[in-house]
Design brief:
InterPro entries: F-box_dom
Structural class: alpha/beta
Protein name: F-box domain-containing protein
Organism: Patellaria atrata CBS 101060
Number of strands: 22
Largest sheet: 12 strands, mixed
């Protein structure tokens, strides 16, 4: 003992889950000391009413469920390198909020009677959270012990965004886990994930055995097995009797029509979270020696209504050494308000309204700061990683680096954020018009941007006009009515059919590529404009951009305001594949009445297709490949009625060769 180098302990810890680290720490004093360096390197604290019970006599302690209190922050605060906090709506509690009553009991000389409360009544649990959040001095004391922290993270979900409710596949229910605040780098998964895999394997084996037994019996009766009864996908989806069918059609939690109690729960949670965020910012500003050395700040999930609260220069001035900033915004779908009489109402709003506060935050707060060199910005909901039949590959919003009004425009000039100091920009989970993407690269070609990453970014394609309509010039997605009196118009062709168009990925990459061009292929130079042609109005020298990374990029159909209804009636076979099986069609109609809906023309729907000619060209010229490396992750999309994840999407790197 005491002879093993510290780096050997660190290597051992790479193969252990967090639960195993906790157990190993109990072995002996040396393991306790060595494991603490790894165990407390990353700490994520959920905000609750008990958090300030730890603050006593000007020191922060935590009661361990297995023993006496442990002075974690005072004793191990200097060991914490990555510190995160989360304050999110609990979906199980929201589905069944506690009762707080609406009438008060009064006594008089003729007896007792009930009368409505004179003032709005609060949920005790949330009122306690708001009271705890208002205690800024205690949070300041807690933060004062974080002397070794270099990376901060925060997750703040108000529940006003998209709610899945009952729209979760069996696979999602088995592997359900909270979204990460920090993305773990450990090679060994947690015990919980291992247990989930074991449960899934058990379900798969049980269903396979049951299906084989059923197949044998039906074969003897010369019967065929319906397709919807095959595979673990449909396990537990059989509706056995009328009562179960009624419960399946009318879930207790309907996100589209929340009860009064649920609406009030969300309203009061929003109040508590605003108080928490204000105290959080004050605690950072009041500890300048601690947070002046912070290098990275991540908002893992942040509801868009909180962005105006972050527009305080004194908060960002306190993070003077901040180099890396990540922002994943949750678009809000509803606005909740309380009138003077105490009556709470909920009003649906278009999620695209979240683009404007995000755009203003980026342009006025982040872009001018010379210390921020690395920026990640995108949407936390919707797109490829969303879960559910009504959400996966849906609800994709344009990147907030372009103003809401200009995101649908294909003109030469765009109102977009200029980042003069960024060296690395990552755009995630969004769509962009081809002209907008080329303009974004062109604007930054003489600035500091050296690396651009497009993570699940889709090029926008516009839907074909309805019969009797014409595409309005200059504004794709807007159609004008007319009477067909002239000669027949040529049929509409999507970008992946016929001759490649300028809106295709090969053309866009050819324009923005810092390295290889289509003309360098030498075998097949397409009929595009010259690859070295400058975008109109640009006379700048060569770009300083050195590298573009593509992660699951493809196409998204924009302008389907009727959401899945329009997709189901579309003649495009690549949009209809979601309803290719009866099981998903029935499930869609059963859940349709209880899900959230808006008429949002800014939404994009990911198209799981790219023509072979484009994929072959991307592979031959830039070595960009279709699909995902993570086969298990790709398989998840099939449980929401889609093709495997990565279908029609490409990944790879295009870089300058020196």
């Amino acid at each position: 003992m005491k002879k093993l180098p510290t780096e050997v302990y660190e290597n051992i810890c790479d193969y252990l889950s967090r639960d195993d680290l906790k157990a190993m720490r109990l072995s002996c004093s040396e393991f306790d000391r060595m494991m603490a360096q790894v165990l407390f390197e990353t700490a994520v604290v959920p905000f609750n009413t008990e958090i300030y019970d730890m603050v006593k006599s000007d020191q922060l302690t935590v009661r361990d469920v297995k023993g006496p209190g442990v002075d974690v922050f005072k004793g191990f605060g200097h060991r914490i390198k990555r510190f995160g906090m989360s304050f999110e709506v609990n979906g199980n509690v929201l589905a069944r909020p506690p009762s707080k009553g609406s009438r008060d009991l009064h006594s008089s000389f003729w007896g007792e009677y009930e009368w409505p409360f004179e003032e709005y009544q609060r949920y005790e649990a949330i009122a306690g959270l708001e009271h705890a959040a208002d205690e800024s001095p205690k949070m300041r004391t807690a933060f004062s012990y974080l002397t070794g922290v270099k990376h901060l993270a925060l997750s703040l979900d108000s529940g006003l965004g998209w709610l899945n409710g009952p729209d979760l596949s069996i696979h999602a229910k088995v592997f359900r886990r909270p979204p990460p605040v920090f993305y773990s780098q450990r090679r060994c998964p947690e015990r919980k994930l291992e247990a989930q895999k074991q449960l899934w394997d058990y379900l798969s084996r049980s269903h396979t055995e049951a299906a084989e037994d059923g197949a044998e019996g039906k074969a003897r009766a010369n019967m065929t097995i319906p397709k919807e009864s095959q595979g673990v996908l449909y396990t537990m989806a059989t509706i056995s009797n009328a009562r179960d069918r009624q419960l399946y059609r009318k879930p207790r939690f309907t996100p589209g029509t929340l009860s009064s109690a649920q609406i009030e729960w969300l309203l009061e949670t929003d109040w508590a979270q605003r108080a928490f965020l204000s105290s959080y910012m004050l605690a950072v500003m009041d500890n300048p020696p601690i947070f002046a050395s912070i290098r990275s700040l991540t908002f893992a999930r942040l509801s868009s209504q909180f962005l105006p609260l972050l527009m305080r220069n004194d908060f960002w001035d306190a993070l003077s050494s901040l180099n890396t900033f990540s922002l994943n915004v949750i678009p809000i779908w509803r606005h909740i308000m309380k009138d003077e009489a105490g009556y709470v109402t909920s009003q649906a709003i278009n999620p695209s309204h979240s683009i404007t506060p995000c755009y203003l935050f980026l342009s006025t707060i982040i872009a001018p700061r010379s210390n921020i060199k690395h920026l990640t910005v995108g949407w936390a909901d919707g797109g490829e990683n969303a879960q559910g039949l009504f959400s996966r590959n849906m609800h994709l919003l344009p990147s907030p680096v372009i103003s809401r009004e200009h995101s649908l425009s294909e003109e030469d000039e765009f109102e977009m954020v200029h980042f003069p100091h960024l060296e690395n920009l990552i755009l995630s989970n969004c769509w962009l018009g081809s002209s907008a993407l080329m303009s974004l690269v062109n604007i930054h070609k003489t600035m500091s941007l050296k690396e651009l990453t497009l993570d699940s970014v889709s090029l926008a394609i516009w839907p074909p006009p309805e019969p009797g309509q014409t595409l309005a010039t200059g504004l794709p997605g807007v159609y004008l009515q007319h009477h067909a009196t002239g000669p027949a118009q040529p049929p509409y062709l999507p970008p992946w059919q016929g001759t490649p168009r300028e809106e295709s990925w090969p053309h866009v990459i050819d324009v923005i590529s810092p390295g290889r061009k289509l003309a360098d292929d030498g075998k097949d130079v397409p009929a595009y404009p010259p690859a070295d042609m400058e975008i109109e109005g640009n006379s700048a020298p060569d770009s300083v951009l050195q590298r573009i990374t593509f992660i699951s990029c493809g196409y998204a159909q924009v302008g389907l305001v009727d959401n899945l209804r329009r997709i189901r009636s579309s003649q495009d076979p690549y949009l209809k594949h979601r309803f290719r099986e009866d099981f998903f069609r029935r499930r869609y109609f059963m859940l349709d009445s209880c899900m959230m809906k808006v008429s949002e023309r800014y939404f994009g729907y990911i198209v799981q297709h790219m023509p072979d000619s484009e994929l072959e060209r991307l592979a031959a010229v830039w070595d960009l490949r279709e699909g995902w490396d993570d086969a298990e992750k790709a398989e998840e999309a099939k449980f929401d009625g889609l093709l495997p994840g990565g279908t029609g999407r490409f990944s790879g790197v295009v870089e300058r060769v020196i």
